[in-house]
Design goal:
113 residues; mainly alpha; three-stranded antiparallel sheet; 3 helices; 58% helix; rod-shaped
Length: 113
Amino acid sequence: MLTRMKKMLKKEKGFTLVELLAVIAILAIIVAIAVPTIGNVISKSRDDANIANIELIENAARLADVSEDFTDGMDVDDLVSAGYLEENPEVPGGSGTYSGTLGKEDGVITYTE
């Protein structure tokens, strides 16, 4: 009985140090590639959200212009108080809300930070 248990213990197999180091090296390469890629995706989505918010603000200003409520130098809070926006959107990335002004030049309304 005792000899049988010794034989079973000797048959245990495991990973060598070289195999474990190879796995760690492969994982490190994967992480080195994936982390910057994920960072770029987050940055691009933040930029796209910012562009979409500015387009929303400009479209609300165009609506105010059609309704003859638009004045040059209006800001986003003026659009909110006039009812053209529900709320002042937050800038992606957590740096507050939009505080720029709206202007009209050659019939085109633009938002300026």
